[in-house]
Design goal:
Elements: H1 2-33, H2 38-41, E1 43-50, E2 56-63, H3 70-79, H4 81-92, E3 99-104
C-alpha cells in the first residue's frame, strides 16, 4: 500500500506544480497590468515553468510593442522582483512563495 502512495506522489506533485505555475501566471498578469511602470504594464507573459522545481519559477515575458527592448524589460523586472514576489505571495496563499527568474524574449524573433 505504501508503494502505491509513493508511486502516485510524483503525479500529484506535478499537478500541484502546474497549478502553482498557473496561479503565479494569473497573479503576474494582474499585477503587471496594474503597474505604475509603463514598461511592466506592456509585457505579456509567455509562460511560467518550474526551474528546476516549484521553489523557483522561470517567467518568460515578451514586450507587446517593439519600442520596448527586451534588455530594458528584463532590467525593470529585475528591479521589481521583490515587489512582484510580495504581490504573488498575497494572492496564491502558499506557505512558501517561489523565487522568480525572468527571461524576456524579443517579439520580432520567431522561436522554433
Amino acid at each position: 500500500r505504501s508503494r502505491n502512495k509513493r508511486h502516485r506522489a510524483p503525479i500529484n506533485s506535478d499537478r500541484k506544480t502546474l497549478q502553482l505555475c498557473r496561479q503565479v501566471e494569473r497573479a503576474l498578469m494582474f499585477v503587471l497590468g496594474d503597474s505604475d511602470d509603463d514598461v511592466l504594464r506592456d509585457l505579456m507573459i509567455v509562460s511560467v515553468e518550474p526551474a528546476p522545481n516549484a521553489g523557483r519559477l522561470l517567467v518568460t515575458v515578451t514586450p507587446l510593442y517593439e519600442l520596448i527592448s527586451p534588455l530594458e524589460a528584463a532590467a525593470r523586472l529585475e528591479a521589481a522582483r521583490g515587489w512582484l514576489r510580495c504581490e504573488i505571495a498575497a494572492s496564491i496563499h502558499r506557505r512558501k512563495t517561489p523565487d522568480l527568474l525572468f527571461r524576456c524574449v524579443d517579439p520580432s524573433q520567431d522561436e522554433a
